[in-house]
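Usage example:
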Amino acid sequence: MKKEPEKFELSTFPAKIDVKNLIAKGKVGDRLKAEIDEKLNLRLDEENVLQEISGNVQLTLLEQEILAQFDINYLAKTVCARCLEEYERKGDVAFDREYLIGRRTPEEDKLIVDKNFQIEIGEPTLEEITLDIPMKPLCSEKCEGIIAKS
Ligand SMILES: [Zn+2]
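Running the assembly step on the lines above writes:
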């Protein structure tokens, strides 16, 4: 039976934070913390499926932008590079993004607050998690690979 090839598109999950109140009523330096707790089943590539993300994003209103500081834990199903068994891997990523206020197009390394006063956090989060997953993940440091299995 011929199997359809699976597609590995780096899709994003709908993850937007409303920043209208922060921008409309806030002063420079004001902060807003958003909690993240998502169950996903998102295939990142041939070997990795992102299952859960949790953590928070701390937003700070600046003169012309919002600084978003992410602190994210994730759980991904991945494949051990030695024994080729699937296992669950936990990781965490901490990173920043800047969202420009009142712009239509992003600048290099900066994103924008969209016309509905929302910021999109899904794509940068996936970007960083994808970078964090090692090229050759191991189920355990002691994994002895395929040969040792009986
Ligand atoms: Zn292994």
